[in-house]
Design a protein that fits this description.
The structure holds 2 protein chains of 2 kinds.
Chain A: H1 3-26, H2 32-50, H3 52-56, E1 65-73, E2 78-84, H4 86-105, H5 114-133, H6 137-146, H7 148-158, H8 163-192, H9 197-205, H10 214-229, H11 238-245, H12 248-273, H13 275-301, H14 306-325, H15 330-361, H16 372-375, H17 377-391, H18 397-412, H19 414-439, H20 456-474, H21 477-493, H22 496-500, H23 508-522
Antiparallel strand pairs in A: 1-2
Chain B: H1 4-9, H2 11-26, H3 37-56, E1 62-64, E2 69-71, H4 73-100, H5 106-123, H6 127-145, H7 152-183, H8 188-197, H9 201-218, H10 226-233, H11 236-242, H12 245-260, H13 267-286, H14 291-311, H15 316-343, H16 352-355, H17 358-361, H18 363-377, H19 383-397, H20 401-427, H21 441-459, H22 462-476
Antiparallel strand pairs in B: 1-2
The chains are: A mainly alpha, B mainly alpha.
Chain lengths: 523, 477
């Protein structure tokens, strides 16, 4: 079989291989080792399959690739329509990249029935991939809701002390918000007769579908669902609770992938379907994003709990993403996508590291630690790299995204840029301060003297994070090439973006790339 | 001379009556301490035969018995649905009757006979016959509700159901009388013809009063007051039966009365009742600790969702009602079957605390109940999700945006109490020692059937939905 022949099926394969693995696991005998090995094999297989996407992705080609479009249900008109563009392809890759690592980091730290844990993990992976590849609004909503249950169960069954509260809060916040999106989807179907994303977008763009005063409400319906997921200030309160109580793998997937479902949704649906409303509402959304950046950072600074600190840092980082998206500049949008990916890797690494510390000491309290650099030198080095990646040190992944977003923000409005840039400074403050309190100084607690350093399995878990952070920092073009094509849609679709950029270049995307090139080679 | 085809058009009911009487006749010949499982098998055979007969009817559609019943895709759908519900409930009852030490074979006979009433409700096109069918189905369930004779709560349930139920059917009869006064006929088709010429105030009153009677049967607000008490006291498998069968049948009648006659003045009535049912049901369920009461309030809310689809009729609204009735039957019968298994002797273990830690003590049972709960919430891959989706979509299609928004908010609220059941099962430590009996074959089969139906409707709804659309088409033609 030629490779082109699998193109239409590759997305279905990537989505359903984990699900098939989960179903097979159901019938496994309860021998924990076999279960873990099998889950690892399935998730690695999924990752390998998903590598097909970037290898065969055609940069610069308009529209979606690897499309499959088949009728699922005739009335109502629901299609099994999948496809990816630059945005969604990398998010799929992020998901498939993080899942095997989640399996590895959970090798010894599952507190509860092991079999169900890995089943939930694989189901969650399938649902999250489904969210990113769906191009039918029904299918999208289907997967969107399907992610809720495995995650809520992961938190509620395998989490720490206040897990039930956190799981229910997580579930209700996201569920209640997403019913507004459901209402919006139904409205669109009632007026267009299709759930197909491209068809609806086409009808709206051609003016065939007059949205009129409904546009505002549709935009808000979708936006609320996504904003709670991101989460944007002031909907963020479920996030710290969920993170603190979740098991490590749950935190990694929650921060690494699930939050991006929100920002991805904004890109795909809010900007894609309602560009005019997006522009109209941008000011207050950007205001909330900037509040999120600064507020998240300030609150992170005073957290006594390591995991909560990282959770609030996510609020801050995701603020950058939203800012980038609603700056409507090619820099901003490419940067937003890059921050999503970078944040997935660096925050994933931080949560993994925090989890390893929890395995040893059963606490996340920063004051319990101190002087760990002496007893765990290798661990400390890994932690330092993850910290620096999160802060945005040049040559590591965090820098590229934040730089692009800030450039975009400055182009849109200087004030946005100035305010958001303070977030970078704050992030250095809270991360480095935490690093200092945990790793330097004297031992405040004698238990820390004899902590074992990372073992081989843990190293194997951490190296991919570090490698990814480094490669993304040094060679961002691998990623931005594909993203650029997708971002052009939003920048060129509307005419106001041209005004947003003072000296509008002929092709904003190209310049974004060009400047990146000089940027990177300059170092 | 009545032609043979007429009997074929009544065949499912006739089979059930024969088997029902057979059960009653065999019962006295059995010793007092004998197991009644054999009678259950006879009853099961009856339901299976009647389902086959209903399917066979598809070649014999048309009117029968002086235009009193009508066999069409619509009636066949409900016949099969009610037959399946009865079969699954009978399967689930084998063990229940053993455990509760109820040794009365009439139990199975009554299930069959009330199923006759429900089936007849879905095919009758004559208001008096509809009323009689309604009574047949009701009387059986009144008695069934009191079948735990030694438990006062069950007697209370039976009497409450009987008193309020006969009151409500009287309303229905009054409505029929007024309709007759308004149009001079009790035949749906004559009424339709008369109403198309002009509507008198009497007809409005007739429709309203008939809705009171049917609203009681489907447990929609404001006629829902009986539901929690009756469900709490009645034997769990009976609740599985009467929370789905009569509801489906009553919705069938509602659809026929409203849309085959093109009745006037129903819209705001249905709208208000839908909103009230959803809101009262969901808010009431939030504070329940008894699983049966929780499911009772949930069934009020579910009736509200179906009423949303009724409000959205014609056309797609009707098919949404039909599909929802099927999905609801699968998940609700399943949920009550699990509850009846866990309840144990004298229905001792029915509070949420008794479900704590079930995920570890009986992982399979907990997983199955979880899926039914997720379906009731409306989470993808389950029939409940698609059913809700169709209902909301139908309402949106009919431009009932306000009603859809109320409904989606309600379904978000509902997530909380269904989720609570899951939380208790998986995330809480058991408070006291609750024994879990071994899963008997009959219950296992019925649970598997409900589970398969729930998933099937959630993943491959195409065929059932197409059939529902076809049914809706023949109803309004």
């Amino acid at each position: 079989m030629k490779t082109e022949d699998i193109h239409p099926f590759i997305l279905s394969l990537v989505t359903f291989v984990p699900l098939g693995g989960a179903l097979l696991l159901l019938f496994f005998p309860r021998r924990d080792r076999d279960i873990k090995v099998f889950a690892l094999v399935v998730s690695i297989l999924t990752f390998i399959l998903s590598l097909h996407l970037p290898v065969h992705f055609v940069n610069g080609q308009a529209g979606f690739q690897f499309e499959i479009n088949a009728q699922w249900i005739s009335t109502p008109n629901i299609h099994y329509h999948m496809g990816v563009d630059g945005f969604s392809m990398w998010l799929v890759l992020l998901t498939t990249f993080l899942t095997p690592l989640c399996v590895m980091m959970s090798w010894r730290s599952v507190h509860g029935p092991v079999k169900e844990f890995f089943i939930l993990l694989l189901v969650l992976e399938a649902a999250m991939i489904g969210v990113f590849v769906s191009l039918d609004l029904f299918l999208f909503y289907f997967f969107w809701e399907a992610t809720l249950i495995p995650m809520a169960l992961l938190i509620g069954v395998y989490g720490h002390d206040r897990r039930i509260y956190a799981a229910v809060k997580f579930f209700l916040y996201t569920m209640i918000a997403s019913v507004f999106m459901l209402a919006g989807i139904l409205w669109l179907y009632a007026h267009t007769g299709t759930f197909d994303f491209t068809a609806i977008r086409q009808q709206i763009q051609s003016g065939q579908l007059e949205l009129g005063s409904a546009a505002k409400w549709l935009f808000l319906g979708f936006f609320v669902a996504f904003a709670v997921k991101v989460p944007m200030f002031p909907f963020h309160t479920w996030l710290p609770d969920a993170h603190v109580e979740a098991p490590t793998a749950g935190s990694v997937l929650l921060a690494g992938v699930m939050l991006k479902m929100g920002t991805y949704g904004m890109l795909r649906f809010n900007l894609g379907l309602f560009p005019e409303e997006s522009h109209r509402n941008a000011p207050w959304i950007i205001a909330l994003a900037i509040i999120g950046i600064i507020y998240g950072a300030l609150v992170a600074m005073v957290q006594p709990n390591m995991k909560k600190l990282i959770a609030y840092s996510s609020v801050s980082h995701l603020g950058f993403v939203v800012l980038g998206i609603f700056s409507f500049t090619s820099y901003g949008i490419v940067g937003a996508e890059f921050v999503m990916l970078a944040h997935g890797v660096s925050t994933g690494a931080l949560f993994t590291l925090a989890g390893m510390l929890y395995d040893r000491r059963h606490t996340y309290e920063i004051t319990e630690f101190g002087g760990l650099a002496t007893s765990m030198p290798v661990y400390s080095t890994f932690f330092l790299i993850a910290t620096l990646a999160s802060i945005g040190l040049p040559l590591l992944n965090g820098f590229i995204g934040e730089f692009l977003v800030l450039t975009g923000a400055f182009q849109a409005n200087h004030v946005y840029g100035v305010l958001a840039a303070t977030g970078v400074i704050w992030s250095a403050c809270y991360m480095l301060w935490m690093y200092q309190r945990v790793f330097y100084g004297n031992f405040r607690n004698d238990e820390n003297r004899a902590l074992p350093d990372v073992n081989a399995r843990e190293r194997a878990t951490l190296w991919p994070f570090v490698a990814a952070a480094l490669i993304m920092g040094v060679a961002p073009l691998i990623w931005t090439r594909a993203i650029d094509g997708a971002a052009q849609k939003f920048v060129s679709n509307d005419n106001t973006a041209a005004h947003a950029i003072p000296s509008a270049p002929a092709s904003p995307g190209r310049t974004a790339q060009a400047s990146l090139q000089t940027q990177v080679s300059g170092q | 001379m009545i032609p043979t085809t007429d009997y074929i058009r009544l065949l499912p009911e006739l089979i059930l009556i024969v088997f029902g009487l057979l059960v009653m006749l065999i019962e006295p010949t059995l010793g007092e301490h004998n197991n009644r499982k054999g009678l259950g098998v006879v009853a099961l055979a009856g339901t299976v035969l009647s389902i086959v007969a209903s399917l066979y009817q598809s070649q014999y559609t048309g009117l029968a018995f002086f235009d009193m019943i009508r066999v069409d895709a619509f009636s066949i759908f409900f016949h099969v649905l009610i037959g399946l519900i009865a079969a699954v409930v009978i399967l689930a009852s084998f063990e229940y009757l053993n455990v509760q030490q109820i040794r009365y074979g009439e139990y199975y006979g009554l299930i069959l006979l009330s199923a006759v009433g429900m089936m007849l409700m879905s095919s009758a096109v004559e208001l008096v016959l509809i009323f009689i069918a309604l009574e047949i189905s009701s009387i059986g369930t009144y008695i069934l509700a009191g079948f735990r004779r030694n438990a006062p709560i069950s007697i209370e349930s039976s009497i409450k159901y009987f008193l309020l139920g006969s009151f409500a059917t009287a309303f229905f009869l009054y409505g029929v009388a007024l309709m007759f006064g308004a149009t001079g006929s009790t035949s749906i088709y004559t009424i339709a013809a008369t109403l198309s010429k002009g509507v008198t105030p009497l007809a409005y009153a007739g429709v309203a009063l008939m809705f009171v009677g049917l609203g009681f049967k489907v447990a929609s607000a404001p006629f829902h007051i009986w539901t929690p008490d009756v469900y709490e006291g009645a034997p769990a498998p009976v609740v599985a039966f009467m929370s789905t069968g009569p509801k489906a049948a009553a919705f069938a009648v509602l659809l026929r009365v409203l849309f085959a006659t093109d009745a006037p003045g129903w819209f705001w009535m249905i709208w208000v009742s839908a909103v009230l049912s959803m809101t009262i049901g969901n808010i009431g369920a939030l504070v329940q600790n008894n699983v049966k009461r929780l499911l009772a309030y949930s069934s009020i809310a579910q009736a509200g969702y179906i009423l949303v689809a009724v409000a959205a009729a014609k056309d797609i609204g009707i098919s949404a009602v039909i599909f929802y009735a099927a999905a609801y039957a699968a998940m609700n019968v399943g949920a009550f079957a699990v509850a009846s298994h866990l309840a144990n002797v004298g229905e001792k273990y029915v509070t949420l605390d008794d479900y704590a830690g079930l995920g570890r003590r009986a992982p399979g049972l907990a997983a199955v109940l979880t899926i039914f709960m997720l379906s009731l919430i409306g989470i993808p891959v389950t029939g409940g999700f698609l059913a809700k989706f169709y209902v909301f979509q139908a309402a949106m299609q009919s431009h009932l945006t306000g009603l859809v928004i109320i409904a989606v908010i309600n379904s978000a609220i509902a997530a909380y109490y269904y989720l609570r059941v899951i939380v208790y099962m998986y995330m809480r430590e058991p408070q006291r020692d609750v024994p879990v009996l071994r899963m008997p074959l009959g219950l296992g089969v019925s649970l598997a059937a409900c589970l398969l139906a729930t998933i099937y409707l959630g993943v491959l709804p195409g065929r059932v939905l197409d059939y529902a659309i076809e049914s809706a088409r023949v109803l309004t033609r």
